[in-house]
Amino acid sequence: MADEIEKSFQSTSEILFGKKLTVFTEYKEWLLENVDRAIRRKSEISNNIVYVPDVTFFSAIKKNMVTLEESVELGKKQLSESDARGLTLANASEKLADIKYVTSDVMVGQNADLRETSTCMNAQHCSDGVWYIYTKCDAYCFWPRETEYSFGVHFLFASKFCIKCYNSAKLTRCFEVSDSNNCSDCYFCHNVENLQNCMFCFNVKSLRYAIGNVEVGREKYLEIKKRIINEIAEKLEKDKRLNANIYNLGCGKI
Predict the structure, then answer these.
(1) Which tens digits make up the pLDDT trace of 149-163?
(2) What is the reported pTM?
(3) Domains of the chain: which residue ranges?
């Protein structure tokens, strides 16, 4: 059976850049450069790897992590009645030594083909990320929800066919878009809403065929877009990364 994640990466890259990029794993470091990664730890009772979300909630208990399967077995352990009766705050850590394990590897609903992931709900064909919630064919993501065909995204909700988008919702066919809502076919945009076919726009709403916050018309826009995405595709195919992103573009550090 063909790799569904690889197929979706090829399809998404072709939609965004006009060219199929292949072997999604070769783009891992680039896709993750602005995404919180899962911390990889060995289980405290085995050599199995546990994928822990890098958030404050887990910071103090990382050293007690086990896999989901191991946690089920450890859950069968219990204190003796005498130990339970003698439990105090002062001796709790010692008394609970054999049972005070936790897992970040939560699985809820129907899940399939999840690779190096943690905390998933109704997710299919997802790789290397955490909190895949109602997602399909995503990779290298942190907390996508109701997304599909998305790669290298961070807090992206209700979106599809996106690469390297952040803190946004309702995006379709977008690349390097951050802190935005209800946009489609946009590239390198920040803090925008209700944009269609726009590039390099910041802090604006309801534009069509715009570059740098100025509507230039469909013909001119498509001419410029073609030139830019051809350059992007060429660089990605050659170098497996692009130096420009929505964050360093905005602060002039490329």
Answers:
(1) 999 999 999 999 999
(2) 0.90
(3) 4-35+160-250, 41-95
